[in-house]
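Notes continue from the previous slide.

Worked example: a multi-chain complex. Inputs as given:
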Amino acid sequence: MGLHTMTASPTLAAIRFGTGLRPGQNAPDPGALLTGLGGADTLQQRYPQDSYATRIALGRELTRLNRSRRDSDEADAAFLEARRQLSRDVLRQLAITLARGVAAEGGAALRERLVWFWADHFTTVGGRSYMRGSIAAYVDDTIRPHVAGRFSDMLEAAILHPIMVLYLDQERSYGPNSITGQRRGASLNENLARELLELHTLGVGSGYTQDDVRQMAELLTGIGVTGEGELAFRPNNAEPGPEVILGHSFGGAPVADLSEIRAALRALSLRPETARHISGKLADYFLSDTPDPDVVADMAAVWMDTGGDLAQVIGAMLAQPSAWAPGPGRVKRPLHFIASGLRALDIPADRIASASANAVNRIASLPMAAMGQAWQQAAGPDGYFDDDREWIRPQSLAARIGWAMVAPAELRPRLPDPRVFVQGALSDAAPPDLIRAAARAETRAEGIGLVLASPEFQRS
Amino acid sequence: MPRLTRRDLILRASALGCSAAASPLLTPVAFASAPTDNRLVVIILRGAMDGLDVVQPYGDPGLRVARPDFAIGPDAGATDLDGFFALHAGMEALLPLWQAGELGFAHAVSTPYRNQRSHFDGQDLLEAGTAAGTEGGSHEDGWLNRLVQTIPGATRETALAVGREDALILRGAAPSVAWSPASRLALSPATSDLLSMVYHDDPLFLDVFDDAEFYSGLLHGEFGDGGAEDMAGAMADSLRDAPRSVSAQSLASFAAERLRADARIASFSIGGWDTHRGQTNGMRRALRNLSGAIAELRQGLGADWDRTAVLAMTEFGRTVRQNGSGGTDHGTGSALIMAGGAVRGGRVLGDWPGLGEGALFADRDLMPTRDVRAYAAWAMAGLFGTDRAALESHIFPTLDLGPDPGLLR
């Protein structure tokens, strides 16, 4: 499938499908985005995060310190310091996420945007024990390797990751007729099963019923997490099968194991409802919050033809002429806005990766929260807001304008001339009114603020 | 009709001969006359509150059977309300309100949403106030906004959505503003004009910027005298403080402050009700937030508390039976919480459907016996004189108002 070379512009390739322009850096070749996406992921190595194993070890240590904190003043101080370190680590995870986005060019920038998309699609929130420091590792392990791969692989990795299992309470769901269920009179917990069908695969209103949710919950019984934070399968908790989901039978082997669950996840990943739901979400994320149904249908058709090959689904989107229509695109989410703002201000990614926790908090974490995207703290498993009008509210627009007017001076003691800045930030996407406004601002800080606060910069 | 911008209003004020010269920009004084003295606060309880745990029907033997591990009734720390229902210990702080007749409940209520049990669709339907089957669609407006549409003389100050989320309940054609405590926009007049020019061709940004300038100006006055440094400092402070001012109590305190001034309708939400596991702790935390918010409203509203009704409602209830994790899953019927000096409380209203064999909805949930919208409608009729036709056709399409439960004093 070929790109519409007549309409595809390098500026849009950077703004709509990447993390924005950087002054002095050539905008990417639209035709090379997909190849770049499939290329080696060098940014993960360049800006590494703690591994899941490291986070578990630190989390268990924090639990141990918490238990002994009453023993002595030193023990209490050690606990408090470890807890402060955890907060700093979470901020560092934001710095690394931003640094990868700021460093990325072309197809690599498309990869970062996709990682952000899927981290939201498979939202987890670290509320308790070691979960809090582990969200970035969860994203690196389950999402990142699969954004240009198969959806079924990502689905399995995410749903069967201990963090997801804990977040949606699967580890304490018992088949009513399982050995544990019978002994303790314990029962199901529907949480993961429902969100798996409603949010992660088929989509709400696509035709599944409460019975399907119930059967899915029964099939998922047995999944657990060990004290060491590893996934476990406990046959004693598993409801004896088979379970019938959307008319198909799963499970029923004499001894239940994960393979039955994997088979059901694979089947869900290939359902037409799933293809439509997620193609629609991708088009919504990149193109418009009322995406063209024909575009979504084309993407879903490619999904079905390729068995959920995500690179090809993205390729089908990029091949649409309407994907390259100039003019107002989606409102950037706050993480995207700030990453692209840092690029426009020509801040080196290395400086962001090594910034102090305080600086990350002031420049990114608190402002993002004021804009409605508190870092790693989505309100629920459906992730952050979706529609443009949810993102642009009076108080959150005030925060965006506030960042635009205040952050640049803090990041760069010598601010560039706004007339130069507008060209670097938006290139040929800068409208004449904005160029005039930037030139007429009373101070450099306000001129740059106007550019960063403009709809052309706030949208993609 | 296109929306009026601040500049339009200034022009109109000038044309009408108001003393716009005294203040070059719109000030609260110019449009201060409130259309009514009564106040309505709607708190959205996001995540599906378990009404059976908050207002426990301990007199129904089915409850203990379905929830063997839960603390139930006066023997387990709850407070007896009327010999049949008991109030969860997490709401203890509000017992004086119950005794004063300023706190009441309606049980076994729900929106028309059935069977799907999705939080997100359920909340949309609760806020849109529309009929069954409209979930999943794109809702243009919410029922509180449609109420404002019926209030003569309502201005942009009359209705306020507090907090950072998009409050569908107040979205719509009538004027309303969304704002958060500690939010601030501080721009020089010249920068403000340039930004208006930059937003000129983008209706979303233009309208929302206008609201932000209006509300920030209302709270902090217009900028212009201070230097660029001061403005940057004010906005930097706001970026730092706004994310820290999102507790239920801060939202309630800000709402009360505005309701004492010119706001008459306010809405905010409190989350934390999705108690799939360890409900004992989760419910205690969530109820502490809700009780704190209601107490803060009472405190902050002062004498105006007597003219206030607070309605706290949720998208649906939870399963009657406990699940495998000491929690409950998504259900249907729940409870409505009503507070305020204008409320005739001290009662648990509603037809009790029972929890026995065959009494449950889909053999799992509390059977709703009344549409929660009917209570909200009667409260609006009492507070604002909203007529029946407007309530049943416009504000809550297809609602059957039913008999008057006499909610207000």
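Summary box: Confidence is low (pLDDT under 50) at residues 1-33 of chain B. Chain B touches chain A through 68 residues (CB under 8 Å).
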